[in-house]
Request: fold
Amino acid sequence: MNQNTIRNFCIIAHIDHGKSTLADRLLEATGTVLPQDMKEQFLDRMELERERGITIKGKAVTMAYHGEDGQEYQLNLIDTPGHVDFSYEVSRALAACEGALLVVDASQGIEAQTIANAFLAVEHNLVLIPVVNKVDLPQAEPERVASELQQIFGFSAEEIIFTSAKAGTGVHQVLQAVTERMPSPGGGLDVPLRALVFDSIYNTYKGIVAYVRVFEGSISRDDRILIMSSVKSTESMEIGIFSPNLTPADSLIAGQVGYIATGLKDVRECGVGDTLTTFDRPAETPLPGYVPLKPMVFAGLYPADGEEYQSLRTALEKLQLNDAALTYEFENSPALGFGFRCGFLGLLHMDIVQERLEREYFLNIVITAPSVAYRVLMKDETIMEVDAPSKLPSPADVLEIQEPWLAMTIVTPERHVGSVMELMSARRARFKRMEYIHGAAGDDGNGSLGGARVLTEYTMPLSEMLAEFYNQLKSRTQGYASLDYSFEGYHSAPLVKLDILLNMEPVDALSMIIHKDKAYQYGRALVERLKSAIPRQLFEVPIQAAVGNRVIARETVRALRKDVLAKCYGGDVTRKRKLLERQKEGKKRLKKVGRVDIPQEAFMALLKVE
Reply:
């Protein structure tokens, strides 16, 4: 294999702009997948991805392409997710490539995530090829979208390629542009091996299968490998490329993308970002790897059946191997038993992890309401990281509580700007700037075509995003707004702990840290929702919201009443009174020792409160 004929590239775009469909056409055009084997979203193998129509995991595939110059090229494509929650997948893919296709929908134009991904690619010094997709749609405006690309990113008109991934038009121009505009990978062949692990999976028979980009040197089938972070050596059971399934090969050289089956069974011995080298001729220093992302959202995961705790732990270990952004640590809740405190990149990431645990590992789990990590400055000048309300120290010891804020970019049609500003104001957001993205003159009334669109930037507390923010943004803009965000920093705020008491007992899994001004209305709305979510018991269950020792809201779940007089057909009234008194005493005793079962709907009620 000649290094000059290798091209490594990825596809980046906003969600639902046609990345996976374009990848399908590239696979067909290069003959990588036979027509009888082809299906939509071919690279999205996960059942969850196909159901939701989104890419969750980046996929690598090697394609052979005969260029117009008569040369045969090896094209290594990594298809990346488009949702902001999975931007970590995108950043890892960019580190393994020299170029990227920036795909934009001809009917929707540039969205917030398009801008974020493009600047992320520029930071990695990638060559960008702009592609305007879906030009065959009746409402498409390719010229307007092309002018937006020129205005925002500075592309020239000649650089932009117009395609329809669904119809297959423009695909060969894309392949030709990849071979002509993108550079071949560097890296010496006679130096020690350095291969970066950008993803990995666990195979029952092959152990950890590391997906690697070889930056320097080469590796052959029988070479013994060394994981530089854990200094663990092992035999390479198999090496190969993705075409698109795992296909064994004799060797991998600098510039290639492939896989190495390590045979390791302990998932902690080889993780994403590790550097692999050969045992006989090791490299001196590892590759830079990846900057570990800090989780933004935290929630407790507990098995519905306490006996499945060990199964949940094993499942999280294997899932973390495939999803490097997931973090977890042991947690014990008086209400829910043994479980784990997990960190996620966002609400969609949390939802996907829960679905994968239930589908792939057949677990029945309960997940608590999400919260964020606060920074607490103590009076003794120490700093605490608090990712759960139960960990918040006594107010007497606290000097200041700081909450995380996000830098947010929202792109919306001009006529919805007022609705967006009203929503942001209600969420304690701070306005930064506004910029008009000018398109064609006029507006045809559908919100997405014609007229100007507006890019607005805000900073907003992360906690305000957890309760139905994204749904409200979409509903207020008729679905046309797009959102991107990144961590901005910590800011001080008057925050209090809102406790939820069931049957006079605090339930830490339902507690939350909230802004002081919103505590009453939030507590009032929450107890009302919990009243409908918690099933009736044989005894009366009071639901209370409290700040400190002060109860600010209360609702009562009425008791189920068994008709103890059903067996009395007339007779002395004292007999009936005796049965009713006995029932009353029993309910009083049951209320003291009774345990309220908390369904999953009760935890999700916290998300629905506005």
Observations:
- The first strand starts at residue 6 and ends at 13.
- Residues 83 and 600 are 26 Å apart (CA to CA).
- The domain at 3-181 is CATH 3.40.50.300 (Rossmann fold).
- Confidence is low (pLDDT under 50) at residues 440-450.
